[in-house]
Structures are given as C-alpha cells and as structure tokens.
Amino acid sequence: MSGYLPVDQRRFNRNDDSFMSDWIVVANVTDLTPGDFTVIPADDTDIAVFNIDGSFFAIEDVCTHDGGQLTGGGREGCQLICPRHGARFDIRTGEALTAPAYEPTATFPVKVEGGIVYTRDDRWD
Ligand code: FES
Q1: Distance (Å) from CA 17 to ligand 1 centroid
Q2: Would you give per-residue pLDDT tens digits along the chain (125 residues)?
Q3: Which of 82, 89, 105 most suits a substitution to test ligand 1, by most atoms within 8 Å of the C-beta?
C-alpha cells in the first residue's frame, strides 16, 4: 500500500454540462496501481480510494468505532484494518467485520473515464 499520491484534484462545477454531477478527480489510473490507495478530501470528509486487483473502491476514511482515520492500519485483501483498535472493514461494501466497530462506513461510487479515476460523495443527492 503506497498511501497518499500526488494528484491534480479538481472539483467539477455542478452546472457544467460536461459532467453529470460533482465528480472529484482521484488520480490517473496509471498512478493508482493494484495494491495502491489514496485519500482525497471531499467536502467535510476524506474518501479513501483503493485499487484492489484492478478494481476501484471508495470508502469514507472514518472508523465508525471512534471516528478516527481508518487508513494507515494496513490491508489484508479486501479488509481494511483500523490503526487504532483493529476493527476490520470490507473495502468493497463498507461493512464492519469485527469489533469494536459495528456500523458500516460509507462507500462511494467510482468511475474511470479517459484514464482518470473519479469518485463523488453521493450521500446528500
Ligand atoms: S477507532 Fe477504529 S477500531 Fe477503534
């Protein structure tokens, strides 16, 4: 896992007809290779975007046990391990898999267009 990648982050205007909504640039596909992840700010939260075996997944970088940052504790397959108390989350679904976390963390849509990975916080649509 490589961590934070330098990316050119641009938020697209909701009124720009070339985009359906406020998709956020995450990274070039070539910069987010299998096993990598990056964390990008999105409004009031951070979104962690993972490349797992060529598939992209985005989850809120917040542990539902105590509200701390979820990334940084390691990953085993599709499981992200909280660095604080070891709760595990499924990166694909956000599901809390082990105590002391019981509530899922949010997941977000991801798309790849023109060699760029995008995500968006769709919770308030
Ligand atoms: S803050 Fe994540 S397990 Fe406690």
Answers
A1: 41
A2: 445 444 444 444 444 444 446 899 999 999 999 999 999 999 889 999 999 999 999 999 999 999 999 999 999 999 999 999 999 999 999 999 999 999 999 999 999 999 999 999 999 88
A3: 82
Whether 40 is in the pocket of ligand 1, judged by its Cβ within 6 Å, is no
Residue pair 19/106 in contact (Cβ under 8 Å)? The answer is no
The tokens describing 1, both together, are 């896992």
The domain segmentation of the chain, as residue ranges, is 24-119
Cβ count within 10 A of residue 58: 26
Asked if residue 81 has its Cβ within 6 Å of ligand 1, the reply is no
Give yes or no for residue 83 CB within 6 A of ligand 1. Answer: no
The verdict on whether omega for the bond into residue 34 sits within 30 degrees of 0, i.e. cis, is no
Position 21 scores a pLDDT of: 61
Domain 24-119 has CATH 2.102.10.10: yes
